[in-house]
Write a structure and sequence with these properties.
Blueprint lengths: L10 H8 L1 E2 L9 H9 L3 E4 L7 H14 L4 E4 L20 H7 L2 H17 L4 E2 L24 H17 L3 E7 L20 H8 L1 H8 L4 E4 L17 H11 L5 E3 L6 H4 L4 H11 L4 E2 L7 H16 L5 H18 L16 H9 L1 E4 L11 E5 L16 H7 L4 E5 L4 H9 L4 E5 L6 H13 L4 E4 L11 E4 L5 H11 L3
Parallel strand pairs: 1-8, 2-3, 3-4, 4-5, 5-6, 6-7, 10-11, 10-12, 12-13, 13-14
Antiparallel strand pairs: 9-14
Helix pairs in contact: 1-12, 1-13, 4-14, 5-6, 6-8, 11-12, 14-18, 15-18, 16-17
Length: 497
């Protein structure tokens, strides 16, 4: 490895900084980040660790704009299970799967508009959402309720509605994870997933929602770190010229910004490394390098900047490709800065739209013992390991909402082979509300429910993941997601509201 480093603010160095979307730690902008904005950095990625309140977030984005007025401030705010704005409390909006369960495209557009309005009010102008993945594999460990569903036409119309709603608030949509992460059984945060289907299936299923997003005018598309041999047998989509330039730009006619998924995810970092991966991604046709979920410091920015500069100087990356990528970043920044781009960001907040949507998404199946709960129950939460996209800091479930409606409600969290027996012992004589997430994917969870059902025919089951298992219990409630409003909607049903 050469020791040559990029210095100064020449055009090449500025372009290399412009294509980066780094993160940082803390709730105010560190000096190094402000300095890089002055040198050419054009985007900043925010995560839950950067957000304490809407007021603090607005102050933070104002701090960034004081250094660079047209900075792109990006966030991973899908609503539902993946929330950064409300990481500590749970989201005020149901996620995609709940919206797909309702299947009212106008409702989806309205939810996305209100979410965009809240982002714009805080100074955020690029959202790494929506997920346009068709959740065709019910065992998918990373998409699940982040998808509108398993039906391609449904996912397509809701993706388009979401893009339209979000962008009507002046916030650029970033439709993901191209060319589709739904038919995977591996989480790309940990390893390299692959999709082994033929071209006809890909075009009919995976690519259809992205076509719909492009037709709806999505300003950005995020690539997936997945291997799709039918498209490119050698390189994952993020690093594939065939997929990003040949397919997305050429065949699908997409002209907006192409953003990579997080480069520190192991599908890239453990196979190519982030420097080499970033060079290959830009060469393949990506325009912006997302990094910062795990690596969030100035050293990372310098490493990637220098890797891009040196690749150009060594002839490994055409200078005009880097310049084109930087120009696309600046073009999106210019769109977000247009007068009237955030014309819907003011006005009274539509605080109820999320709860209205969550209520409509609930599916209720009543058995023989389906009496409403009127005494404080025992809530047994059967908790799987959270995937990295969701994170484990965001609360979920129904206990807090039941406690509000029925003071004295008690709760416990259980996992593993003895979860059912432990929950029974902890509950005592109280009526039990069992809360699960993707029970079909966890054998221990299904066994725990069986134990409870045998002992307690009046068991209430709340499924907050993808409802694949048969409805069982005196009352079975499928919320199609674990957002805070989904818990509120379930609690209302449990108490007869």
């Amino acid at each position: 490895m050469t020791t040559l480093t990029a210095r100064g603010t020449d055009t090449l160095t500025r372009d290399a900084l412009t294509v980066l979307q780094p993160g940082f730690t803390g709730t105010t902008a560190p000096d190094w980040l402000l300095r890089r904005l002055g040198e050419g950095l054009a985007s900043v990625g925010l995560f839950g660790r950067n957000i304490a309140s809407p007021e603090q977030l607005a102050a933070l984005t104002a701090q960034l704009r004081a250094e660079r007025p047209d900075v792109l401030v990006a966030i991973d705010e899908e609503g539902g299970d993946v929330t950064r704005l409300e990481a500590r409390s749970g989201s005020s909006f149901p996620g995609n799967h709940a919206l797909g369960a309702v299947d009212d495209a106008e409702l989806t557009r309205a939810v996305a508009t209100e979410l965009g309005r809240r982002l714009a009010a805080c100074g955020v102008n690029l959202n790494w959402a929506p997920s346009a993945d068709v959740n065709s594999n019910p065992d998918n460990p990373v998409i699940g309720v982040r998808s509108f569903g398993a039906d391609t036409a449904l996912v397509s119309r809701h993706t388009a509605a979401y893009v339209t709603g979000l962008q009507s608030a002046g916030v650029a949509a970033c439709t993901k994870h191209f060319p589709g992460h739904g038919d995977t059984a591996v989480d790309s945060h940990h390893d390299m997933p692959r999709i082994d289907v033929d071209l006809d299936v890909l075009h009919a299923r995976e690519l259809a929602p992205f076509r719909a997003a492009i037709e709806a005018g999505t300003r950005a598309v995020m690539s997936a770190h997945i291997l799709v041999p039918a498209l490119d047998p050698d390189r994952p989509a993020t690093l594939s010229h065939r997929i990003l330039t040949g397919l997305l730009r050429g065949e699908l006619g997409y002209e907006g910004l192409i953003v990579t998924d997080g480069m520190e995810m192991r599908a890239i970092s453990a196979t190519y490394g982030i420097e080499r991966g970033s060079v290959l991604a830009i060469a393949a046709g990506a325009d912006a390098i997302c990094v910062g979920g795990g690596l969030a410091d100035d050293l990372t920015v310098r490493r990637l900047r220098d890797a891009l500069v040196m690749a150009v100087r060594a002839g490994e990356l055409p200078e005009e490709r880097l310049a084109d990528a930087a120009a696309r970043v600046r073009a999106l920044a210019a769109w977000t800065s247009l007068p009237g781009a955030a014309e819907h960001s003011g006005g009274a907040p539509g605080t109820e739209i999320g709860l209205v949507a969550a209520r409509r998404a609930v599916t209720v199946t009543r058995g023989a013992h389906a009496a409403p709960v009127i005494e404080p129950p025992y809530v047994a939460a059967f908790t799987p390991v959270a995937n990295i996209a969701v994170g484990d800091e965001t609360p979920w479930g129904v206990a807090a909402e039941l406690e509000r409606l029925l003071p004295g409600t008690e709760t416990g969290s259980f996992s593993g082979q003895d979860a059912g027996a432990a929950a029974l012992a902890a509950a005592g004589e109280r009526r039990i509300v069992a809360v699960v997430r993707d029970a079909h994917r966890h054998g221990w969870m299904a066994a725990a429910l069986e134990t409870l059902l045998v002992a307690r025919p009046d068991l209430i089951v709340v499924e907050m993941g993808v409802p694949q298992s048969p409805a069982r219990g005196a009352l079975h409630i499928a919320t199609h997601g674990a957002a805070r409003v989904c818990g509120m909607a379930a609690a209302e049903v449990i108490t007869g509201g």
